[in-house]
């Protein structure tokens, strides 16, 4: 499909997270409204509150019809709107206004909000897969192990931004004890210790760490990306690989590709998991399955 055949989107909802990315959004509504009105579109706004946002947004959407819904925030807001739209056929647009914006980067959406807004007029609809992880929705990346611990501490802290994340990660790294996992997928069984285990339909964290290079978001499969325990001396090399799309280069990494999986930590009742940036404790084992072609997204027309 080309830009000329892109769907005409007239009635638009912008789901706005007032606190995301520590970005001042005071003028945003006025800018978007003016931009849309001048071009014959209507823009409506919905503000998240941080409490019961999914149920409230679902209720709101059941009473109002929109041609597309834009998430104006970070990965948490994108995931919230994506979950409200999954299996509904209404396309998701993204205005990247968070601290990381991982899914928007994976979809090739411009990081400049003004350019991202232009997708209303020039876009290509794409239908991607999403995941169910322990009964919870995921549009992007989830993990067990080291990063989940860091995200949980980050979430509990008062300071946001990459500096706080790096400070917590450095502290946790020194005495982190990797867990042992038992993984059964529709393709294989794997047992072993892992420093970190990422459940990935997408490729890249908001931090630009490429945990799952060259994977498709619409192939009906997902990857379990394992970083096995490594000596401290190997850490810089692994970090370099993660920032240069070289995940498979290290002897301490492996990926399992599958359609469904059961992940357990023998002897544990619960497992800490971060899903699309939100830490949560799930019952052991964690069941994962793909929801093929379940989310419509607005992406740029190729070669523009
Ligand atoms: N009005 C609000 N007040 C406080 N918290 C809110 C509000 N709206 C949404 N939130 C919270 O914002 C978080 C999602 O933030 P989002 O990911 O969109 O932006 P972010 O700044 O990139 O966040 P992060 O740094 O955690 O990735 C969720 O935890 C959600 O509950």
Account of the 3D structure:
There is one protein chain. The chain is an alpha+beta fold. It has eight helices and 16 strands. The protein has two domains: 3-129 and 294-299, Rossmann fold, CATH 3.40.50.10330; 136-293, Sandwich (Tumour Suppressor Smad4), CATH 2.60.200.40. The chain has helices at 28-38, 53-63, 75-85, 102-106, 113-117, 146-156, 162-174, 235-243; strands at residues 11-16, 42-47, 68-73, 92-96, 124-133, 136-138, 141-145, 179-185, 189-194, 196-200, 222-227, 253-258, 260-264, 270-275, 278-283, 286-299. A six-stranded antiparallel β-sheet has the order 6-5-16-13-8-9, covered by helices on one side. β3, α3 (75-85) and β4 form a beta-alpha-beta unit. The radius of gyration is 19 Å and the shape is globular. The two termini are 13 Å apart. 38% of the residues are buried. Bound molecules: adenosine-5'-triphosphate (ATP). Residues 17-21, 48-50, 73-77, 98-100, 160, 277 line the site of adenosine-5'-triphosphate (ATP). This is Diacylglycerol kinase family lipid kinase. Keywords: Kinase, Transferase. One of its GO terms (molecular function) is kinase activity. InterPro entries: ATP-NAD_kinase_N, Diacylglycerol_kinase_cat_dom, Methylgl_synth, NAD/diacylglycerol_kinase_sf, YegS/DAGK_C.
